[in-house]
Write a structure and sequence with these properties.
The complex is a heterodimer.
Chain A (H helix, E strand, L loop, with lengths): L2 E7 L2 E5 L8 E5 L4 E9 L2 E6 L11 E8 L1 E4 L6 E3 L6 H8 L18 E5 L6 E2 L4 E6 L5 E5 L6 E6 L2 E3 L4 E7 L4 E5 L2 E4 L8 E3 L10 H6 L7 E5 L6 H11 L4 E7 L3 H10 L16 E6 L5 H19 L4 E7 L1 H14 L13 H10 L2 E4 L7 E10 L9 H9 L2 E2 L4 H5 L12 E2 L2 H12 L1 H27 L6 H18 L13 H23 L4 H5 L2 H7 L9 H24 L1
Parallel strand pairs in A: 8-21, 19-24, 19-25, 20-21, 20-22, 22-24
Antiparallel strand pairs in A: 1-2, 1-6, 2-5, 3-4, 3-6, 4-5, 7-17, 9-11, 9-14, 10-13, 11-12, 13-15, 15-16, 18-23, 23-24, 25-26
Chain B lengths: L3 E2 L2 E5 L2 E4 L10 E5 L5 E10 L2 E6 L12 E4 L5 E4 L7 E3 L15 E4 L10 E2 L4 E3 L3 H6 L2 E2 L6 E3 L5 H11 L1 E2 L7 E10 L1 H13 L6 E7 L10 H14 L4 E7 L1 H14 L13 H9 L3 E3 L5 E9 L8 H9 L2 E4 L2 H5 L12 E2 L2 H4 L9 H25 L6 H18 L9 H12 L12 H7 L6
Parallel strand pairs in B: 9-17, 14-20, 14-21, 16-17, 16-18, 18-20
Antiparallel strand pairs in B: 1-7, 2-3, 3-6, 4-5, 4-7, 5-6, 8-10, 11-19, 12-13, 12-15, 19-20, 21-22
The chains are: A alpha+beta, B alpha/beta.
Amino acid sequence: MAGKIVKVSGPLVVAEGLSDANMADVVRLGDQKLIGEILNMTGDSASIQVYEETSGLGPGAEVTTTGVPLSVELGPGLLDNIYDGIQRPLREMYKIAGDTIKRGISVPSLDRTKKWDFTPTVRTGARVESGTIIGTVPETSAVLHKIMVPNGISGTVTDIKSGEFTVEETICTVRTDDGQEKEIQMLQRWPVRVGRPYSKKFAPDTPLCSGQRVIDTMFPIAKGGTAAVPGPFGSGKTMVQHALAKWSDVDVVVYIGCGERGNEMTDVLMEFPELQDPRTGEPLMKRTILIANTSDMPVAAREASIYTGITIAEYFRDMGYDVTVIADSTSRWAEALREMSGRLEEMPGEEGYPAYLASRLAQFYERAGCIECLGGDGRRGSLTAIGAVSPPGGDISEPVSQATMRIVKVFWGLDSALAYARHFPAINWLNSYSLYMDTLKPWYDQHFGKEYMINRDKAMSILQAEAELQEIVKLVGQDSISPEDRLTLETAKMIREDFLQQNAFFDIDNYSSYDRQAKMLRLIIKYDEKCREAIKNNAEITALFEIPARVKIGRAKSVPVETYPTEYAQIEEEMDKEIKDLYGGELL
Amino acid sequence: MIKEYRTIKEINGPLMMIQDVEGVTYDELAELELPNGEIRHCKVLEVSGNTAVVQLFENSAGINLAQSKVRFLGHPMELAVSGDMLGRVFNGMGEPIDGGPAILAEKRLDINGLPMNPAARDYPNEFIQTGISAIDGLNTLVRGQKLPIFSCSGLPHANLAAQIARQAKVLGDEEANFAVVFAAIGITFEESEFFVNEFRRTGAIDRTVLFTNLANNPAVERISTPRMALTAAEYLAFEKDMHVLVILTDITNYAEALREVSAARKEVPGRRGYPGYLYTDLAQMYERAGRRKGKKGSITMIPILTMPEDDKTHPIPDLTGYITEGQIILSRDLYRKGVNPPIDVLPSLSRLKDKGIGEGKTREDHSGTLNQLFAAYSTGKDAKELATILGESALSPTDLLYAKFADEFEKRYVSQGPEENRSIIETLDIGWDLLSILPETELKRIKPEHIEKYLPKKED
């Protein structure tokens, strides 16, 4: 039975005669079969948010329900793809409809004709349950796609195939305990607003290596953790997010461009196939999925894009992979929520945002974590969620930033003053934090020795001391402070310029391994320690600042990856000698 | 058959409510015929049952509720486009106002456009030489970019935009088929006339399409003006293979018109009374800039906006900055100092610069010197600030050099005449000249081999 539209106001449509529809069902509207989702129902009338432009829609047009909530298709073919907010493949749409996104186009999310090479991992007669891996498909050169028994099915395998199949062909038959024969295909569906089940959740204990020194050394994030990157425009949010998408040591990256620039998505589409994963040597695009709802696309689909992205990420997590989902920007998502809420004439909370903003944000971030997957083999997966926040005017006292900060464990605060000075990544070391520091410390100590984290803490306290000293210098000038304090300022400058700053466009510097980070920091901390000793022995401070080894520390970033261990050791030796010469000479 | 309605129930500012309508759809265009035969335009904002709320594009004065007739046209607002538009002047509704004949439409296009598929975009990476050092050297513009000018009342943003329009060229592509689309949104006659004269003087007028909605034209017409201009630009770029430079001035007036309509609709306001959908609305305009795969043409956009109270965090510049690929910010302080164009380079930014510079595009040393100049100027400004509090004697010798660098940088690099057209090589060389003020050890961001090759050798 079809309903009829009674009201159209932008992306919000009210329809009557939908008594057979359920809350949150996906509906089709008008002759063009536009896609919408039911937001609330009164009697047989429903408020619907429409994921496409509603221009040309009017009262009297037909509305039919599909009877299912907004879902994504899961299976081989997701990787190396770009989707819109409701998982329509944008490359396919480009082939069908040209340069622009026209309305009412219906394209399946996963290619129905492509044959995948399925290798079974269970035999006939095997006992399987929800989440058991029954076979694998080499989806891309970087990721082995594992086919799992869909949720709600358990029993005995009565037939399993091997060979080339499309996502819709049956690859396995399971006889359930109550005697039913269930056919399993590679294609599965999952409603986006419901988190996928797992058997257990753990506290994260392994750091995510991003190759970014300010993140890995100073404010690390754990695999399965949550982080927010707030900052005003021009402070390099997208650069940080791109760096994380490129260099994180995870198996799959889901990048959600939510209400952001079209060219940024194009940039990823063009750059990632060219870039190599430093660990596997495969193109980065082979492990990446893009969800793009650019700022000119319909606003309702923006609200859905976040959920589409995280559901796909959960699917790969359930295979036992480490997955990162990066959302740029959650503020645009919140604004979409606000726009729909306004049109529904709901009572607004702070700054017009709906009262449920904080709980929706919390629900999103809570889908991150380290888990033991279903299927009984004890495999573990993790889902790390990193969201950008775009506070108006860069002022983080606004509701989205505040609600986010209450949830996430890592806060990388971007600073426009640093960006103006072209200090990138412009993560402010004074107001950023990572609550994973304590849980991750044992990992660092175990893998790189205790010195790394000791040096890290020293560097942090030097930076803190610098901030205080700067206040004094502003009042009395640099000459009036003690040589020790001048050294602190100098070391802090080295930490900032020679360690924290990292050039994303310079191919030696764009990725630093842990070992390199530890050794680089060691050079600076050693310089500080040796100079302090020298000052005690009355060495001339300006001479200490001018030793040749210091210039070499400044250029340590551009030492090639192959030779850095020996070169850094050499710099340390030279530095040692040059400093000793300075006060040794005077003592004689 | 098109029905006529005489059922206007209410007019309130730019909004009008019409009852007992049938078959009306959202976003549809309608014509309003006054008793004297005058035609005005409006579009459907909301339709609920048999009541339609429409927004007038023109003034509501003189409308008689009982005797005026409304006809719904069954399609959204459209613009008649053709190659003959070049050299013509239109009003904010797309009607010719230069006394010339009507445009013989090759096509009629929906002025709202359609969102561009990110998979169909081609990344902008062709360097545009504007001849202005602060832009070419530090905030490089590329073909297909949207780079706004954030200005303040009383600053020469119009001159800067005109200078860019006049001097912009892509190196090695001198023959390119270029056009300018200019939309005057609520600006004064004098300001608009400045641009027209400027285009006339340089001979660009024959390749220019002008859309003018002046300060005394109805404010609501401003909502359609930039969309008309962008529709024309899309047509010229993607169907006529032209490289189009779109200048939109002033976006602040546009946002205010949007606020007026929103207030009349009694919507829940966002920051400073602007509607919550201001971001989406602006994005739908700005995102129309760009390049498309397989198309020769491109749209490069320079929106100009005046920041209310010189405040960059005001919603209009703030939301614009989140959408556009960078921004050029003008500073009142620099203007007072006599620096012209008064571009405040530190907060200015071109996000696409890294794809448009370097070997084969500008010069191999561009990226390194750019970062070094920014960092040095920032340090120099800090040093100068310190010197004003404590006196110059409090500065270390290096900081003194930085302070000197900052002064020279403003004077020689940023400042240039409105007629001076510097090549990128000249710009880069001035940069090196300035960097030679600093000790070589400070030049950490430049590759040593570039220092060796380009740094002017000191005489001593």
